[in-house]
Task: structure prediction
Amino acid sequence: MKNYRLFLVAALGILLAGCYNDFDTPAPAKVWTDEDLAQQGLTPMTIKEMKAVFISEFGSLENTGSNNSWSDTKTVKFGAPSTFVEKEFPNINFREDIADRYIKGKVISSDAQGNVYKSLYIDDGTAAIELKLCGTLYTTFKLNLATMESTWVYVKLKDFYLGNYRMMLSLGDAPSNALNTGLRNKYYANSNFESVDLWANLSNPAFNRVLVGGPCRLDETNIKVVNSSNYAQLGQDDYGRLIRFEGVKIRYANVTYQDEERDDEGNIKRDDEGNIIWGPDITAPAFGTNGDPFPNWIVTDSGSPVFSAWYHWAYTRNNVSLYGSVLMTLNDSATGSASPGAYSIRTSGYARFSMRPVPRNGTVGNVLGIYSIYSTRLNDYAQYQITVSRMEDLDFPKESLLSQEWIDHNTPASSYNPPVKDGAGEYDD
Result:
């Protein structure tokens, strides 16, 4: 009997140790496959086919994502109405026939450096789409742009909303109305899934909506190369895709600055006290109809947008963070933001590299980023924008980056004082 008790104690110890080890080292997360989705009765469709559903419902991307009111904010729900309010909503079209479909794509964006926020872009070789999620995404949806190692992602489309914001389609939660920091209404055709449990039901994987597949690599079908020979071929099907822009030129516009004087060997000239000797004023040619400066920071929610010259990738000072915009071109004759071959590199003030210096005017380099449009329709005010995931994707020669002395000398004093809202949501004069 004594030996039997000892055997039970030993067995219990082994069992408890096994449980402890399992808790410390949980089983790896499930890697989803095509077969798993087929077993759930789901069939695939390409991202391009899915985006075409929006066009078939509303006829165009133009004038369907102005977002000035609900009347010009269009949405497709992949499923049936689920609430009375939703049934009465003026501009949701319901496609129950898509509720048993899924898309599959490779991760092409990363929020690791803070320039992409609450968004995940995936591409399947036919098109790309933004998923409006939440939380820290790069730890789950892995991407290494240095090695082009990526991850497959599956999206079960049932009850997702395909919405249009300024001609950019995305998949997310229900439409929402929110006040921006200027206390003005913003109408969103869809919204972010604010809780992970809404898009990934961790307690019941069978109901997950966004599923992590196995590792993969990005290839030429996922990264389009654009240069001076083919930039005019970029079109609507490329919105949201990862583009490698080669041989782009940094272009200043509507700013006046001074460069350092240099000797015959290219060295910066300094006076006897070590101060830089500055050359004559240089006025960068006009660009666009509004005379907005490039590079700049921008305040967008204080009524009419406010711009000011700014020679860092974005603005982060005194607890104020603003987007920065740097103009790059493949077309020397571009005259405005809607011109083919003209793009704005948009950088968040929350990005880790927001206060890094930009290159000198005329610098040539390469940029890898997500290609997008910001416009209600294709007109003179359309803007083509590039969002990079990493500082390393802004590939310009190190010697071309502005020195802090140059920046201090040329930044207007007013640029250090952007409009800041008061407690009532109003902005100081």
